[in-house]
Hints:
The complex is a heterodimer.
Chain A: H1 4-40, H2 45-50, H3 62-69, H4 71-104, H5 110-118, H6 125-138, H7 146-169, H8 173-181, H9 186-197, H10 199-215, H11 218-223, H12 232-242, H13 247-282
Chain B: H1 8-11, H2 30-66, E1 69-70, E2 80-81, H3 85-91, H4 94-126, H5 132-144, H6 147-157, H7 164-171, H8 183-211, H9 215-223, H10 228-239, H11 241-257, H12 260-265, H13 277-287, H14 291-316, H15 324-331
Antiparallel strand pairs in B: 1-2
Amino acid sequence: MSMHARDKPAVQVAKPIALHTVTIVIGAFVLIPILYGVLGGFKTNQQLSTNPIGLPDPWVPSNYTDVLASGSFWLQLWNSVFIAVATTVITVGVAALAAFVFARFAFRGRELVFTIFASGLMFPFAVAILPLFILLRFFGLLNNPLGVILPQAAFGLALTIIILRQFFRSIPGEIEEAAILDGCTPFGFFWRILLPMARPALATVSVLAMVSSWNNFMLPLVVFNDPGLWTLPVGVQQFQGQFSADTARILAYVVLAMVPALAFYSIAERQLIGGLTAGATKG
Amino acid sequence: MTSPPAPPRVRSRHATASSPRDPAAAGESPAARRRRNWVTIILFLLPAIVLFGLLVLAPIALAMYSSFFKWNGFGLVPTNFIGFENFTRMLNDKIVIGDLWRGLSLIGFSLLIQLPLSLAIALLLNQKMRGRAVYRLIFFAPYVLSEVITAVLFTMILSPGRGLANELLGLIGISESTFLSEPDTVMYALFIVMTWKYFGFHMILYLAGRQSIPNELIEAAQIDGAGAWKTFRHVTLPLLGPTIRITIFLSVIYTVQLFDLVYVLTGGGPVHASETLGVTMYEFGFRRFQVGYASAISVVMFLLSLIFALGYQRFVMRRDTEGAITNMRAAR
């Protein structure tokens, strides 16, 4: 460190170069697998064997077009979207009502009830999957989208309630008093004033609920036997099993299945990252 | 919203959050108002309680209950009570014991390699440099892909014939390996895939933590003559403490519950060499219909998470957060 002054010009050049070199290496570690998938989808299997790394020669679009032309990809995409949206609406709706009560009413046992909900953060699907399966079978919800939507919503409540309560608490009491003075019922205040004010927080928790539904695998795997109900993760996994020798086609399928998630990420990056950091620090 | 400042008598109608012990209505027409408040509270909480009770708490309770039975999973509740037999069986089950060791080694890898790496990258990206936002976007991208997609992609990459990994290793003179089908290498492969997918997530948390440290503190240290390492060691690192403790927590909990990635990437194989508790539980529960035994495994997963979470909150994170669990003590 004593050489600081003398070395300065050299350091000023060397440092950015070193920085960029390191970040580019890490970037390559992240991107090369994805790139391999994208390019691999444009190859034939024979090309993949002889030339796994280079550019396709010739470019073969048929893997992609075959997948896109098959109904099952679109059906799975639709199932994933439908289940994610329904899960999100239910999770956020139910959690917002509860978070409102936890944030703005005082009653005996409030913290205890809240803690029970919050502890739901520690109950993953993996722990509950077997009895959940048995319960869903009992209710006749196997092979029914609700059999995935409702448990997902239930398991999403914990995080959503925690984040929303935090936000609802931060809205000044004067606003509520004014609304009540103007004759608002509690529900009126909640619906017409609190929710519109909480839009950023709602966006955050919606994005989180959406992503976790989108990525869920275990639950749809055991609940849906019927291929017509499969979501993308289940579809991808089954596709791999079915065409295990056809690497190029699997790569095309995987790459296409990535597109919606990456597109969503590019749109909702801020909410996603904001939500994850909030969830991690407040959970 | 054109109302004048509220007169004091209205304020107490909904006591605002911060004081849980406040009586709901102090001052005016208490009984009726309180009853109306209770109706609101119950109506608003009801959907959440029903959903949570029926689909989260009840399954967990059922799992605990059925872990004491020998049960093939037919019907709603088991009948053949066998006490702790499922649990004692686990003690002698090489696969389950192996699951625990593998979990521990994954946790070790994560804490010693993955998290420090993520921290280093976060501090790197905290420097002033061109294209920083783009790098951050790219590094985080794998996190948004589902574990299944990640696993299928890497099955292809790590496969012997057409895979990318062997080809790249061949370039630097390392001979062909079938990473996923060799017991010796499969855990390393799994760990690399985990790192690929999750380092960006930890990086984002560290970045957020770093950005909440005022730069004045770092500058003050530098003015006082602390070099880069000393500044990091004595200023940045301690101030990142809460974030680091949270990432450790998330890492451990995640590993205890790991399923998707392993199930799709290796199925737990070869010969159980990469199996986790989640995979073992799935195998027994959904393949072999030993639901009682599988429930016992899931109860162990649950207890491991719970004990770790409570202990960790109590002893490690106590100063950092008023977490949900610490709040409970306050309320009592």
